[in-house]
Amino acid sequence: MFLNILFVVLLIFALSGMTLHKEVEASSFSFVIAIDNSQSMSAVDLSPDRISFAKQVATDFVNALPYESNLGVISFSGNSYVEQSLTKNKQEINYAINNIEVSNVGGTDIFEAISNAVEVFEGEKNKAVILFSDGQINIGSVSEAVDYAKFNQVLVHTIGIGSVEGGETSFGISKLDEDSLKSLAYNTQGDYFNFNNENKLTDPFNEIIQPTRRLAS
Predict the structure, then answer these.
(1) Is residue 140 within 8 Å of residue 38, measured between CB atoms?
(2) What element of type H or E holds 130?
């Protein structure tokens, strides 16, 4: 009798078109992770070097994001390259991040990084770039990058990688330029976070992610 009743109940649900839903956590934003891979990111003021440190922090951020967050990855130096288009597959994102190496192309072009991120975001509504850099911008200008981000309604959070005292590279001492990173973040309504060996990036994750709730069948 119990099985007959269960069968009838399930049949009624099927005929009525009822769908069972579960509530899952998702971010209200789509994110593009932009990692500076210019030659200054080879500095060793962070262990083992800046770019390795940035990649570890970036993967920590990815793993902290809610289920089904939309993510993309770009690298940038004197030019910018799409390492991974938007996807909800965190394994693909982490693979793309971990395969970024220091570029042979000279310079750091923030404008091209933002421009490339905008292309990755095509069709997305809420857009945020998480930009990891030592701020050594020597191609283009921060103001151009800010104007382009604002025009395309892209919020930019910047993560300072390195120390103001500087670190050794093959071409000399490279110091963290916080002013340019702060300007890029604050003028696009984002936030700037300094990240070094003593300052573990934990609480800022929550400020960036801004989780929302939605229904998924």
Answers:
(1) no
(2) strand 127-133
